[in-house]
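__Protein archive entry__

___
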Amino acid sequence: MNMNFKRKLPIPMEIKEMYPISLALEHKKHARDIALKAVFSGESDKFILVIGPCSADSEDSVLEYATRLAAVQEKVADRLILVPRVYTNKPRTMGDGYKGLLHQPDPEKESDLLKGIIAIREIHMRVLKETGLSTADEMLYPENHRYLSDLLSYVAVGARSVEDQQHRLTASGLEIPVGMKNPTGGDLSIMMNSITAAQHPHAFIYRGWEVESTGNLFAHAILRGYMNKHGQSLPNYHYEDLLDLTERYAASGLKNPAVLVDTNHANSGKKFKEQPRIASEVLHARRHSEDIRRLVKGLMIESYLEEGAQKIGEGTYGKSITDPCLGWEDSERLIYAIAEQV
C-alpha cells in the first residue's frame, strides 16, 4: 500500500473529553436544533439563513464575523434564524489547493490533521460560547462528524458527495437537519434519491462499528445551480425550478418537504455580488406561490468581513481565500431586506 501511516489520531470521544462543552452550551445548541427543526416541519414560519465565509480560514476573523451576526440575529429574531457557516473542510475539484482548517490550521503551513481536529472543535465551540449561535459545517468526511456532533445544528452534503453511499447513510443517523445539494451536473433525481436514502433507516459500518440508523426526517434539498457539459454555470433557483421541485416532492412521499437555495456557486456563476438579486428573486417566488412559500425554508449565502477573495498569504483580515464572498455591509443590508420580505 503506497501510504505512510503517520500517526494514530484520537477518536472523537477522546477529543470531546479533552475539549468538553458545558451543560449550558449543550442546552443552547439543543434549543437551536429544536428551532430549526420546527421550520423544516412547518411548525414555525421563520426563515433560515445559513450565512458566512466560504471557508473558515481564521479563528479570529470568523469569531468577529459571528459576533456581528449575533447582534443582527437579536434584531430579526421574530422572522429569521441565522446559522453561521463555519465550513472547516473544503472539497477541491481537482484535489489540490487549500482544503480547510481541518487540514491546515495555518493556511500558510503544511497539513497537520491532529492540530486540525482540535482547531475545528475549538472554533465551533468558541462561536457557540461567545455568540450563542450554533453552527453549520459541510460533512465532507462522514467519519469525522462525531468530532463536532455536540456542536453543530446544521450539516450540508456537498454537490460532489451527494451521490456517495456513506454520506447518505451517515446523514440518516444524524439528529439535526441535513441539506443534500444537487450534484454538479444538475440531475435532481440524484438529489431526491439522496434525500430518500437519508430519511430511511439503515444498517452499515461506521468508524469500525456495526450501526443502525433510524432515518433523518429533516433531510432536505439544497439547490446550488449546476454545470452543463460545456462547463458553463446554470442556475436552478428560478420560479419554474422551484415549482418543479414542489412537484417532485409531492410525487416522492418524503417527509417535511423543504429546500434551501444557495445564492452563490453555480447559481450566481460565482459572481458573489449577484447574491442579493438571487435572494430577492427567490423571495418573490415565495410570495407568488403558496406551494413555493411552504417549500423554500431558507437561503445559503457566502459572506465575510471583506468582500471578494484573495490568494493565501496576501493577508487581508476577514477576506476569503477560497470563493469570493459578500462584504459585511452588503450582508447586513441583505439580512434586513430578507427579514422585511419573508
Observations:
- The chain has a mean pLDDT of 96.
- The chain has one domain: 12-321.
